[in-house]
């Protein structure tokens, strides 16, 4: 799965650029926009943020190593 995440990280870079571009265009014109346009832009920025969160969380779940120490049992497990 690690190679597929490398491709996803490349897409994340593109999404971050798009997020910053949308934010750059949105902030100066916020007073001139209608309420529905503000809601749509806000939802699109939220969607981009959730995609970023999903990719990072799935990377942590499926690719990164878990440091469990020397003992493989939970601390509450009776010995």
Number of helices: 2
**Helicity level, as a percent range?**
55-70%
Sketch the topology as an H/E string, one letter per element.
Answer: HH
What is the rounded Rg? 20 Å
Distance between the termini: 36 Å
Biggest beta-sheet profile: none
Structure write-up:
This protein has 79 residues and is mainly alpha-helical. It has a domain of 55 residues. Helices cover 67% and strands 0% of the residues. The chain is built from two helices and no strands. α1 runs antiparallel to α2. The chain starts with a helix and ends in a 17-residue tail after the last helix.
Characterize this entry briefly.
This protein has 79 residues and is mainly α. It is built from 2 helices and no strands. The chain has helices spanning 2-26, 35-62.
Q: Helices and strands in order, then pairings?
A:
Blueprint: H1 2-26, H2 35-62
Helix pairs in contact: 1-2
Task: Label this structure with key terms.
mainly alpha, 2 helices, 79 residues, 67% helix
């Amino acid at each position: 799965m690690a190679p597929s995440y490398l491709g996803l990280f490349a897409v994340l870079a593109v999404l971050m650029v798009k997020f910053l571009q949308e934010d750059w265009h949105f902030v100066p014109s916020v007073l001139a926009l209608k309420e529905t346009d503000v809601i749509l832009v806000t939802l699109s920025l939220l969607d981009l943020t959730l995609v970023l969160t999903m990719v990072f969380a799935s990377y942590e779940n499926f690719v990164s190593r878990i440091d469990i120490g020397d003992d493989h049992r939970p601390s509450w497990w009776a010995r």
